[in-house]
Amino acid sequence: MNIAVVDTGGANLRSVTNALTRLGAEWRLTSDPALIKAADKVLLPGVGAAADTMAKLNHAHLVPVLQGLTQPILGICLGMQLLFSSSAEGDVAGLGLIPGRVTRLTADQAVRIPHMGWNQLTRRLEDPLLQGITADDYVYFVHSYRAPDGPWVTAWTEHGGEVPAVVRWQHVHGVQFHPEKSQTAGARILENFLKL
Amino acid sequence: MLCKRLIPCLDVRDGQVVKGVKFAGHVVMGDIVDLAQRYRDAGADELVFYDIKASTVGGVVERSWISRIAELLDIPFCVAGGIHSVDSARAVLAAGADKVSVNSKALERPELIGEIARSIGNQSVVVGIDSQWIDGDWFVFQYTGSSKTMRHTGRRTVDWVREVEQRGAGEIVLNCMDQDGVRAGYDLDQLRAVRAATSLPLIASGGAGTTQHFVEVFQRADVDGALAAGVFHSGDLTIAAVKDALRLAGLEVRL
C-alpha cells in the first residue's frame, strides 16, 4: 500500500504521519503531483487557514491533481473543509469535490468557538469509515468553521446544532475531527480508511 | 455533547518531568514519555508540557523530547515555555505538538499572538494568563516563575482576556495565583468574570484539591477544561475518580 500525505505546508503534519506509522502503514509526505496521482490512498491534512492552504495547493499546482483523483482521498479537519466548493474563511474557492460552502460556527453563551475538545458522533448514513465506531466513542475536534449539510454527511456531532463530522461523496471522504489525536477510536477510523 | 476536559500539566526540564519541592528546587519524577503515556492511559483528555528551563533561560532550547512524545501520544498536547516568536511556535508544532502556549512574551509584545495565529491557526494558540486580586480587581502578572522576576503588568485581567481574543488566541488558560498550590478550590469568582468576557474555550488552573473542586468549577464557572498538576502527580486524586464525580454530577466526560 502506497499512501500519499499531501504536504499542505501546515506546521504540524507530523501528527498525521506519526499516526500512520503507529498503524504500521507506509506513507510519503509529498507535494509531487506524480506521487500523489500514483498513490493508492491520499490523505489531505490541514491545520491553519483555508486561504493560506489553498494558496499553497495552487502554488504547487495540486488543485487539478486532487480534483482528478479517483482513488480514496481523506480530508482531515481543514483538509475536509477544502473538499467543498468554497469557504467563508478568507472567502476562498475550495477543491469543489463536494458541493456547498463552508461557514463559520455561530457562538453563543454555551457554544464556544473554536469547537475544541472531545465529542461524539451520531451516525446518519452507513459509512465504512465508521465501522466499529459506536455512539459512545469520542473523537477530538478543533475547528471554527463547519461544512455544509447535505446528502454527503454520514455522521454529525452536536455543537450548537448538528455539525457535519464525517462526509462521504463517491471516493471522497472527510472527517472534521482529528483521528490522529483521537486515541483508539481515531486509530480505528484511519485504519478503516486504509482498508477501503 | 462536548466533554469537559481534564488536563494534567507536567513541568519539563532537560527532557524529564520534574516537580518543585519547597526549599529543594526540583526533583525528577520520571521519563517524559513514560509519564505522558501513563496519564493518557489514565484518561487525561489533553496534556500540557511546561518547559521550565526554556522559559527561564531563553534562547535556543533542546526540544527533541517533543518529537519523542508526538511519536507515541495519540491525544492532543500543548507546549508552554520558551515560545517567543513565530519560528519557535512553528518549530514546536513541526515537532508534533498540537498547540503552543504563550504568556509573558505575549504581554511583552501583544502582536505576537496575532503573528503566531496567522502562521499556525488560532486553534493552536493558547494564551496563559497569571492573574491575582490586588487593589480591588484582578490584574495580570508577568514572569511569575520566581518572586524575583515577577511583575505586576497593570493590565486588568478581563481587559487582557478581551484583547487576546481579539488578537487571535484560540484558548485561554487562566492561572489564578491566589489559589495556586493551596488546594482550596478553583477561584470561581474570577473564572466567572473571565467566562463572561470571552466566548473562547476557557481552562481553569490553580486550586484543585478534591473531586468536588472540579465539579464546582465546571458547574459554577462554566469553564471548558480544568488543568491541574500537583494533585494528580502526588496521586492524591486520580483522573478516573474526578471523572466519576463529574459524571455523577451530570457533566459530560470522556471514558
Would you mind describing this structure in some detail?
The complex is a heterodimer of chains A (196) and B (255). Chain A is an alpha/beta fold and 196 residues long. Chain A has one domain (3-195): Class I glutamine amidotransferase (GATase) domain (Rossmann fold, 3-Layer(aba) Sandwich). Chain A has helices at residues 14-22, 33-38, 50-59, 63-67, 78-81, 183-195; strands at residues 3-6, 27-30, 41-44, 73-76, 84-87, 92-93, 98-104, 115-120, 122-123, 138-143, 145-146, 153-158, 162-169, 172-175. Chain B has a single domain (5-248), classed as Alpha-Beta Barrel (TIM Barrel). In chain B, 37% of the residues lie in helices and 28% in strands. Chain B has 11 helices and 12 strands. In chain B, helix 8 packs parallel to helix 9 and helix 9 (211-221) packs across helix 11 (239-248). Chain B is globular, with a radius of gyration of 17 Å. The chains are: A alpha/beta (196), B alpha/beta (255). The interface between A and B is large, with 41 and 38 residues.
| Helical/strand content category of chain B | alpha/beta
CATH C-level category of chain A = Alpha Beta
Please tell me the total number of domains of chain B.
1
Shape of chain A: globular
Mean pLDDT of chain A: 95
Low-confidence stretches of chain A: none
| Residue windows where pLDDT falls under 50 for at least 5 positions of chain B | none
Q: Could you outline the blueprint of secondary structure elements for this entry?
A:
The complex is a heterodimer of chains A (196) and B (255).
Chain A lengths: L2 E4 L7 H9 L4 E4 L2 H6 L2 E4 L5 H10 L3 H5 L5 E4 L1 H4 L2 E4 L4 E2 L4 E7 L10 E6 L1 E2 L14 E6 L1 E2 L6 E6 L3 E8 L2 E4 L7 H13 L1
Chain B lengths: L4 E9 L2 E6 L3 E7 H11 L4 E5 H6 L6 H9 L4 E4 L5 H9 L4 E4 L1 H5 L2 H10 L4 E10 L2 E6 L8 E6 H11 L3 E6 L11 H8 L6 E4 L5 H11 L3 E4 L1 H4 L5 H10 L7
Helix pairs in contact in B: 1-3, 4-6, 8-9, 9-11
